[in-house]
Every structure is written in structure tokens, then in C-alpha cells.
Amino acid sequence: MAEETEHLKELITGIAKQARAASLELATLDAAQKNRALEILADRLVAATGDLLAMNQKDLAAAKALELAPAMVERLTFTPERIAKMADGVRQVAALPDPVGEELERISRPNGLDIRKVRVPIGVVGIIFESRPNVTIDCAILCLKSGNAAILRGGKEAFHTNMALAEIIHEALTEAGINPLAVQLIPTTDRWALNELLKLDKYVHCIIPRGGETLIRFVAENSRIPVIKHYTGVCAIYIDAEADADMAESIVVNAKTDRVGVCNSIENLFIHRDVAASILPKLARAFEAKGVEMRVDHAAGRVLEKINAGGIAHGVPSIDYNYATEDDFYAEYLDYIIAVKLVDSVDDAIAAINLYGSAHSDGIVTGNEETAKRFMLGVDSATVYWNASTRFTDGYEFGLGAEIGISTDRLHARGPMGLRELCSYKYLIFGSGQVK
Amino acid sequence: MAEETEHLKELITGIAKQARAASLELATLDAAQKNRALEILADRLVAATGDLLAMNQKDLAAAKALELAPAMVERLTFTPERIAKMADGVRQVAALPDPVGEELERISRPNGLDIRKVRVPIGVVGIIFESRPNVTIDCAILCLKSGNAAILRGGKEAFHTNMALAEIIHEALTEAGINPLAVQLIPTTDRWALNELLKLDKYVHCIIPRGGETLIRFVAENSRIPVIKHYTGVCAIYIDAEADADMAESIVVNAKTDRVGVCNSIENLFIHRDVAASILPKLARAFEAKGVEMRVDHAAGRVLEKINAGGIAHGVPSIDYNYATEDDFYAEYLDYIIAVKLVDSVDDAIAAINLYGSAHSDGIVTGNEETAKRFMLGVDSATVYWNASTRFTDGYEFGLGAEIGISTDRLHARGPMGLRELCSYKYLIFGSGQVK
Question: What is the DSSP string of B80-134?
């Protein structure tokens, strides 16, 4: 056992050292050479469709034996169409502008020093992810394009598919004249190996965990390397007293039901007390139609009770709802459930969002600009919307052209992370003999 | 004992929660109110000179009893002049532009969404520092100006002085109508308390350790909160074959000897083999005059040997030098010692700097623009100089107006950190009912 962990340690240290060496080469490559590698990779992925499907079958067989959930098996499954789509994605990243070398600032000092702040790769980026094998290609190409060496650690469910993809990446890099160790897949999903990697702050500069909360928490607690976390979100919409009712309904229903299992869908709805009676009935029917369960606070419950009481006389079917506990407002359902609370003012809505939410994506629906501005200033979230669905928090929707994830941290990158967010910067200082 | 740690845990959690609440208020303050607090603080510091000196005496008495090194006692000592200077520093920060609210980017999407990326405070910043009490004021005012709540944990040597300073800060905040818990000093230097703080990622968003390597490593290894490290530096100058000899000498001597105990002074010197014989004699005499010991590789040693042999015939006193071990090139002397190695090319110099250095500040002296560009691209350091001393790596020299430190990390902030680097950003998205 001790021998085995010693072996793992050597393996991981070797990978990290080679990645560091490769990163120094990558940082000096021009865009053309990186793009050539991406074009070759796209072609090779399509050409290897048969081999990839065969390796994917191995993972699918193991998934069957392990009785994985159907949704998980579905995400794991390659088809010729999915492989073609993956190759298209690679070509799209090749077509994006190279972030490396972009000048961010220029400072001229009285002593004649000319200081330029330019974008450079971070160095070595470790990405820890689960299940979906197309993430392997996504991470590899975004790191390559941004000049970073990548160390990838995928989930065990996709192990064989990932190994096959890594092989194709190595071939493409080699053909393009790039050190193939610029992208390395850790050939084991052992938790010990991951733990070793997280100690190697001498060689690895950034860790991006993508996946479930348990994985992310494990990484954040054990890493000596800076981590950019990608937790999912507890998002909310606040319907203000001056909201357009139709717009409010449309935004809330979209933000809740367009896809329920994603980080930028909403879990909480706050409604100004003055408009609850007018907004809730139609909204409740819309939720009903979509199969969304409402969990409401006592104030909202009283409004619904009254509506139902009024409706009974006219033979209107009752609106269904349950009462929320305090915990419901902290919950990330990722399901057809929404917690509803009435508030007295925009300030109450701001306080509720800052209290219950996860500072991911939150929105206000209002026709009042002053109220909107107050909300946007006060809500401490990565993305704050005025009169739009929270579902737009996404690298593609932001026009970044690509996305490695959505950071829930506040340092370095916040919100959608594209190629630029995979970069650091350095200062180039041009002098003529200046001394201090 | 268990009771005591439980008490500490409660104390620290309380501080962190209060800081979080204060940070939400701070984030919405306008520049005028923050600046008013700074002006009041400056006045109060001067007015409290007598009290501060009295509290400082307590620390100095303890320092005497503990037989602290004279340099440390010197750094700990307040004088009326130092207090006045500190107050001036506070007024200077008040005069700087407010980074909060600055628009960083604007994206207009085809669907009509208007996306604005604006600078916002990080939230709650924990700063761990040692000995010098003026750091307490520096950190407090930079956090306040950038809208961050600060949790300060100073060294035990300055405990009484720091407590007195914290009291004055609270009074100034209160007088300016700002929540005084926006700046809190942890009223204990217990390591357990620090450890508790490092776990509170729910309330604290960033930790900045400033001090010795042991402290920084402890923080990096134990923190669940993102850390921006401030290690010191192993910096170098490379004298190219096409360097102006006088400029090279002036830059190298300045970068080594202007102040030896600072992070941006050099520890290594790399010289192109072709110019070693012409550059080394004068440079060695200059080092001699400043009391700098040269530790040279074998190639440089042979050159010096030959020079000495030639000089003996003419009665020239020998140049003193010692041979370097491999470890010498990794060493951070912070002393009157320099390690010297000959290299064959700019590429060798780049490789040596990337191998031995700490990616802090490195420079080339050359008249050849192509060589300089190759060096600036290839050297993977936060600041890379062409024909200037590395001693300019400093927030003030960069024109930032203030400095919380010099980050040796690659994420978020790299190199000198001013007010902007104490900020995060958020996206404000203006819609007209868009749904996905």
C-alpha cells in the first residue's frame, strides 16, 4: 500500500513537472501554431469516430454493470453526431481571437519608464471534472488556446473514453509541432492521486474543479494551489411593485423552467407585497402548467388562501401550494420547485437575496429605473439582471465564444469564464538605464 | 482547553459575520463618505499621538524583555514624526480615485441585452501581518477605500499599538456614519484563532498574508478561503552580449545594493559568456566597494582567475569571490551576496531565470531590441525589465498611489497590488423582458 501511494506520488509529480516545462514553451507560441493544432485535432476527432465509439462502449458497459442513473448514462454516451459537434466546437475555438499578448494597460512614468500590462497564460491549470467526456476536449482546447498547460482529471465513469481522447490530443499536438505534454490526462481516478496533485503548488498554478459540491469542497479544503470554484447557484427574481405583470410572469417562468437542473435557473421568488394579489394568480397557473411546486411563506400563503376562497364561489379550481420552511429559501432544488416570499420593499428584496442566495445570478423586474439601480448596486451577485431572465449567465450568451465554466468565486474570475479568464498578466517595463 | 478553543471559535465567527454584514453596507457607500472617514481618521491619529506613543511603549517594553532584534524593535517604534507620516498616508489614499463602480467592459448582445462589467469590492478581506504597526493603518484604509470590510490580524509584538489604532479607526468610522465593524482587529494573536478564521469561507472572501515564508505557507496550507500570497523574491538581471557596460553596472549594483532586504532586489546575475571578461572586473570592484560577496559558477570563476592572474603581474589587488553551489542560485539571500553564472545565450538566461527564480522581477540589459523582446516574452515573471533596475516593482513606482503588497500569485493580482486589485467585478445586465 505504501509502495502504491509512493508510485502514485511519483506519477503525479512527473506529470506536474512536465506540464510546467510544457507551459513555458506554450506561453511563447503564436496564435497560428495553436490554431493549427486545434484544426488538426478537429479533423482527427472525426477520423477517429469508430475508435472513440468503441472505447465509449467500454464505459457504457461498465455504467450498465454499475447501474448508473439513465441521465448519467445519457451524458456519457458518444454518438457520431456528438463527436462531429465536439469537432465543430474545436474549430470554433480556433476561430476565436488569441487572448495572449493583449495589452491591458500602459503607464508612462515621470522617470521615463514605460510600463505595459499584457495578458499572459496562467501557466499550468489543473481541471477536475466528472462524467461528461466532451468536457475533456473543452478543457484541453480552451487551455491550449490560452497558452496554458492542462492537467485533466476526469471521472471514472468516462475513463476509457477520456484516455482515447487524450491519445488523439497528443497526436494532434505532436503533428502541430507542440509538446504533447501540454495536455495530460491523469491516468487514474484514484482520490489519492488527486490529493497529491493538490499539493504541487510549485508546478501547478490554478485548479478548477467542476462537478458536484462534494468534489468542489474536497478540492477547496485540500488544495495548496489557488482554486477557482464552480459551485452551482441559488438564484432569485424579485418582482417589484412597479413591474409589468406579463413581463414578470414570462421572466420568472423562463428563469425557473427553461432548464431546472442548471446553475442559472432560479430557486427563489420575491414579490412586493403590494402586487402579490394581482401577480400570484396568473403566475401560479403558469407554474401549475409547468408542474412547478410553490413553497410559500405565510404572507404569500394568506394571499393565495384568499384567492382560493374567492375562487371557490365561482367554481375556480384551487391553486396548489405548500408552506416553505426557512431552509427552503437556502435550498438549491435544481428541480420543479420554487420558494416564494413576499417583501415590503426593494431593500427587503436585496437583503433576502444577499442572505439566502449564493451570489450567482439574480434579477429584478421593475419599470422604475431608480429601483432597478438600487437593486443592482445592493445585490452582491456575480450577475444582476434588470428585466431579463437569469438564464443568460453563460459564456456564449455573454459573447465570450467559449466557456470553461461559471466561477462562483470573487477573485480572478467571477461569473462566466472564457479564454481571457484563463489568463494572468505580466508587466513589461521598458527603460533606458533607470535606477532607484 | 476545549472551552477556550470553543470561545475563540465563537469570537472569530462573530467577527467574520459582522464583517460580512458591514461589507454589504460598505459596497454601496459613495466615495465622499469613505473619504470623509479617511480625513477624520488622519486628524484623529495626529490628535491621539500621546496615547499611541504610550501604548507603543508597552510593546517596546515587552520587546526589550523578549530581547527582540534591534531591527525589529526599530520597525516597531512609533515617534510623533512616524505618526504624522502615517496620517499623511491616510490623506493621500483619500485623494485617490475610488475604484468601485468603474466600468471595465460593455457588451451589447444581438438580443438587445446590454451587459456592463463594473468594479465592485471583493467583500471581506482578511489580512494577516507581522510586526510593523503602520501596516494596520495601511490595510485598514486601503480596504475601506476599496469598499471592503477588513479583518486584521497583526503580530504579537505590536499588539498594544494595534489595539490602540483599531480603537481610533472605530471612532473615525462611527463619526463618519459608517459601521465601525467594517474594520476589525482580531484581539488575540493565538494561532488557533487564525486557524478558525481560515475556515470561514462563508463570510470571508480573500486572505492576504504578509510576512515571513513560514506564516504565508501556514496560511496557504490551512486556508479554505482564496489566498493571495506575498512571498518575497529571487530576482535576477541578465547582462546580454550587447549590453552597454556602464548601464549594466549601474543597474546591477542598484538592483543588488539599493536595499538588500527587499523582495525586488536581485539575488542572481547572469552574464553572457562573450562579455564576462570585459564586464566582470569593474563590476567586481563595484561589488567590493559595497561589500557584496560574489558566489560564482565555474565558468565565471575561470574568468576571474584569469583576470586575477593578469593583474598580479601589475600589482593589482585580487578580486575576491567564492564558488557557488547549485543551491546558491535558488537562494533568497536578502543580504550582501550575489550568485553569478555565465550563460551562452539569451535563451539560456531565460531558462536559468525560469528555473531558479521566483517569477517576481527580472531584467535584461541589452542594446538589441530583438533580444529584449525574446527575453520579455520568455521570462515567466510578474515584472520583466529591459534596461532598468528591478527595484521599481512597487505600487508607488507604478503610479498606483498605494500598495497593499506585491502578489507573487498568478490569479487575480500579480505584482504590485493597489486599490483596483482589492476589487472584484460584477456584471450588470440591462434587459427589456428577454427570456431564453
Answer: HHHHHHHHHHHHHHHHSPP-TT-EEEEEE-TTS-EEEEEEEE-SEEEEE--S-TH
| Contact B436/A at CB under 8 A | yes
B239 touches chain A (CB under 8 A): no
pLDDT at B213 over 90: no
> Which of B107, B258, B386 minimises the CB distance to A398?
B107
Q: What grid cell was written down for B323?
A: 564558488
Cell matching residue A165? 481522447
Q: What pLDDT digit, counting tens, does each position of B176-192 carry?
A: 999 999 999 999 988 89
* ipTM exceeds 0.90: yes
Tell me the pLDDT of chain B averaged across its residues.
Answer: 95
Judge: A435–B377 Cβ closer than 8 Å, yes or no. Answer: no
Cα separation of B27 and B179, whole Å? 12
Minimal-distance CA residue of chain A relative to B357: A202
Mark yes or no for CB contact A398/B431 under 8 Å: no
For residue A319, what is the DSSP state? P
Contacts of A416 (CB under 8 A, 6+ apart): A393, A394, A395, A397, A398, A400, A403, A405, A406, A407
Residues of A in contact with B24 (CB under 8 A): 354, 378, 380
Chain pair A-B, CB pairs under 8 angstroms? 196
Contacts of A252 in chain B (CB under 8 A): none
The rounded distance, in Å, linking the Cα atoms of A266 and A239 is 13
Q: Using an 8 Å CB-CB cutoff, list chain B residues near A251.
A: 433, 435
Q: A1 falls in which pLDDT band (50, 70, 90)? A: low
Query: CA–CA separation, B276 vs B297, rounded Å?
Result: 12
- pLDDT tens, residue by residue, B356-409: 999 999 999 999 999 999 999 999 999 999 999 999 999 999 998 889 999 999
Strand partners, B150: B125, B183
Nearest to A432 among B206, B387, B431 (CB): B387
As given in the structure block, the three cell numbers for residue A88 are 465543430
Q: Give the best residue of B222, B427, B432 to mutate against chain A (max A CB count within 10 A).
A: B427
Instruction: Report all structural domains of chain B as residue ranges with CATH numbers, in order of start.
Output: 2-231+410-430 (3.40.605.10), 235-392 (3.40.309.10)
